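stage 2 :: seqdesign
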């Protein structure tokens, strides 16, 4: 699988997205904007922030990630990325003109943490009910340091993720190592995981969006291979 370059037209990009469930666009964002964003993220988290989720969730999901919602705290800098004209136009081509933004979530993975096990960001039973992950990388991700993204192409059309090992390798999986300035678009029903951190800490920023028909709480329930977890109630619901 080769990365899709942003010089292609939006209609072509949208077609590829709907075929494979994801897109990779290198050099999508300005390097200086990414550097400023990375500095702000590093300053916020420090070296070893406390986990926000309870121990049961972390033990079962292996999602050793600390979230931060900067826009909810009035940090205006992160609006600049969301308002990027190319990002807006590409989102419109994929979701339609009446799509809605959800929230900006910065995700921090500590050094020597497990990353994230295979999951879907929302229940897949209704194909119209999904979110769009718009993942922005303000730092390089590489094999040496870990934190690469594992994706099962086309799995957004395959229903609920199967039961099985949380970090299983699939024969058709692809492994992404996004560079600074890369945009990765990922369908909320697409099976994906994040590799363990072997070296330094890792961050990515997710500007989630959704089609107008999607419920506002579409990402409240996450689907793992061993459970369904509802964040609003902090309970296992399936």
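stage 2 :: out
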């Amino acid at each position: 699988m080769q990365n899709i370059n942003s010089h292609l037209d939006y209609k072509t990009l949208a077609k590829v997205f709907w075929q494979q469930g994801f897109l990779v666009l290198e050099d999508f964002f300005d390097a200086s904007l990414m550097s400023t964003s990375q500095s702000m993220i590093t300053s916020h988290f420090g070296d070893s922030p406390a986990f926000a989720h309870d121990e049961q969730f972390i033990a079962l999901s292996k999602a050793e990630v600390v979230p931060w919602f900067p826009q909810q705290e009035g940090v205006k800098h992160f609006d600049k990325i969301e308002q990027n004209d190319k990002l807006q136009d590409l989102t419109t081509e994929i979701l339609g003109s009446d799509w809605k933004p959800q929230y900006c979530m910065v995700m921090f993975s500590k050094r020597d943490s497990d990353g994230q096990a295979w999951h879907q960001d929302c229940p897949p039973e209704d194909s119209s009910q999904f979110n769009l992950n718009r993942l922005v990388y303000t730092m390089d991700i590489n094999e040496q340091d870990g934190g690469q993204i594992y994706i099962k192409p086309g799995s957004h059309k395959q229903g609920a993720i199967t039961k099985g090992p949380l970090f299983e390798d699939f024969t058709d999986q692809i492994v992404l190592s996004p560079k600074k300035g890369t945009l990765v678009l990922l369908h909320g029903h697409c099976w994906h995981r994040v590799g363990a951190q072997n070296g330094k800490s890792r961050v990515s920023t997710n500007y989630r969006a959704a089609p107008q028909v999607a419920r506002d709480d579409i990402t409240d329930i996450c689907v793992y291979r061993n459970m369904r977890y509802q964040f609003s109630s902090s309970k296992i619901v399936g």
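stage 3 :: structure notes
- Confidence is low (pLDDT under 50) at residues 1-6.
- The helical segments are 10-20, 31-45, 55-61, 79-82, 85-95.
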